[in-house]
């Protein structure tokens, strides 16, 4: 232990600027520069594809209903020709497992592809930034507009941008709710503004967060709020394709005239223009190495390739590559050969097996289900004619979108029969409850529980049949 006694600390001033600086990093607003190129085209193709799906699916009809509707009130999920019930929650679990393994697989192969191209945060930020660019101008004009004093022109531009963002956000919230409440009912409510309390809440909630995340927070969501940015490194290895800066080729960086051989002036290919930083939606410098803030959008690749073209240098100073490829100077062939490695093979195999199980489950899914509940309030009792009677409640679920009639039969004990209705009609995609009295001669069976079986068969398709066992109680 040291013999010197440290000086006592001075009490911190809670309201001092210095104390806040040590806890929070001040946000520097980014003025992202627009970029064109191969990866920008891919990104916009995914924007169009995902948004056409999202905004368009509620408008599609199927069998005189909404094609995709997760009807919470009816507790049914309609997805084109399929109708899913609460009993089908198993399929949701399998779908979540598939999504998780797909994320693991693609991350192990090529990094944050989801974040860079299909994540809703990326997609809506792209849309909002495009609106901002069309109204306020490019990154230089936007910065000047922010620095300029308030004027009529500035107020008009800002107001127009905020209004456009608000309309997109509101329509996004409306579309989101249309997946859970029928669109025709929502449209009727829209004309009179007669939304139910929960519909109005979720429209405003989803709209508000779309506006907040895509218009205000932007890169802050990816850097500080998204958990994927924190655990992605667990799925990376030296053979994962990520966006990399070829330091060996690019350094030492510096300016020079066009068409000058960089080696002749003691420099690398990087001219230190900074455009790769200007186009980055999270504001990082990829030349500092791989960082958790990088969402893998590849905007810096497009920007750097354009600069290399102007300087008549080879493309690829910033490119998709791997840690091993940079160290060992691998070409594309060697990189692709190392895609198949134990980690990706395991992820891929599990993904394929679970996907096949999901498809098989959907294909083998029984369109008829029956739940049988014996009436516990009235145990087996003796009735006129020398019979023992048990009462049952049958829930017949017709999971198809055509009305069907079903014949009911019972077996399992000598002389057992149904006393009363032996036929039930069930509307399309509906459940029909029916109460049955089952009779057994008094001298048959043994006191206590006896096993019987109900058979429910569709009249128009005898192959569509279900057998369900239950117990028949005979008083002791």
What would you report as the Rg, rounded to the nearest angstrom? 33 Å
Number of DSSP helices? Answer: 17
Uncertain parts: 1-21
What share of the residues does DSSP label as strand, in percent?
15-25%
Kindly name the structural category.
alpha+beta
Helix amount, in percent? Answer: 40-55%
How far is the first residue's CA from the last residue's CA?
A: 85 Å
List the domain count as a whole number: 2
Strand tally, please? Answer: 16
Q: Major sheet, described briefly?
A: 5 strands, antiparallel
* Assembly classification: single chain
Mean pLDDT: 90
**Net shape:** elongated
Describe this structure in words.
Residues 261-289 form the 4Fe-4S ferredoxin-type domain. Keywords: 4Fe-4S, Electron transport, Iron, Iron-sulfur, Membrane, Metal-binding, Transmembrane, Transmembrane helix, Transport. The chain folds into two domains: 27-365, no CATH class; 368-474, Immunoglobulin-like, CATH 2.60.40.10. The chain is 43% helix and 20% strand. It has helices at residues 17-23, 38-56, 89-110, 113-118, 120-136, 139-147, 152-178, 183-192, 197-217, 219-225, 228-231, 247-250, 275-278, 299-311, 323-328, 332-337, 342-363, and strands spanning 61-62, 65-66, 68-71, 76-79, 82-84, 242-245, 318-321, 368-374, 381-383, 387-398, 404-411, 417-419, 423-426, 430-441, 448-458, 461-474. The strands form five sheets. Strands 8, 9, 10, 12 and 14 form a five-stranded antiparallel β-sheet that branches. It has a four-stranded antiparallel β-sheet with strand order 13-11-15-16, with no helix packed on it. A hairpin with a 4-residue loop joins strand 3 and strand 4 (76-79).
